[in-house]
Amino acid sequence: MRSSFRFATLVAAALLSFLFAGVILPGVKSPIRARSPIAAASQAASNDVLRAQLTSLRDSFVDAIKAAGFKPSLDPPQIALDNPPALGRYDNGPNLLHIAAWSELGPDGEGRFTRLKAILNDPRSPEAIFDDSVNHWIFVHEMGHWWQACQHKEESAMGRYALEYGANRIATAYWRMKDPAYMRQRTEHFRAIYNLIPNPIPADQSKQKYFGENFARIVGTPAYTWFQSSMVVDVSAENPPPTFKQALQ
User: Which end of the chain is more exposed for a tag (fewer CB within 10 A), N or C?
Assistant: First the structure.
């Protein structure tokens, strides 16, 4: 039984490594697919719908902050549908939130979510898994980084692990308040991934130290996915769970 479990774990790790393989090679892109004028118009319309959806989610997040009694020191971030390597990224300087769009992924990106569907035995379509993972979870996680920028919380003072944990804590509290069923599903999703990927931390290092010292190297790899998943699992286990207001402080 132990041997079979280890084999299954290694297979899952290999599959997950393949799943994220295209993310860790800067400058490597899928072949450009020629689009007909009709396809291009359909893609533009899809992106317009997505931008409206994300703008509404952004504004809902900001309104929730104000309802909690806080006043953001920055304007709501502009949204760029430009497929960053980690699928989402907040840039403090231009106050810009970069996020991926399904219509722009290309075959490699779509393939990663097709494989994720198979690995997790998820009955939903790859696009639906992408939407839940990227345009809901990652987007609000990055809005958490925007709020940290509003508070002038910086990596140099907090450490990278604390910064990421804080953004996950904010996202978890927000979705627990806005859509408890979605947050329960997200927790189950992250727990499944956490259990599939082997713990990447050497025995002689702490979780926080290893993550901070290796952040740039592991972004986009299964190790980074393990860390993000472990943070959500840990946040979800907090008892009592923090309110959205408490997570923002």
Answer: N
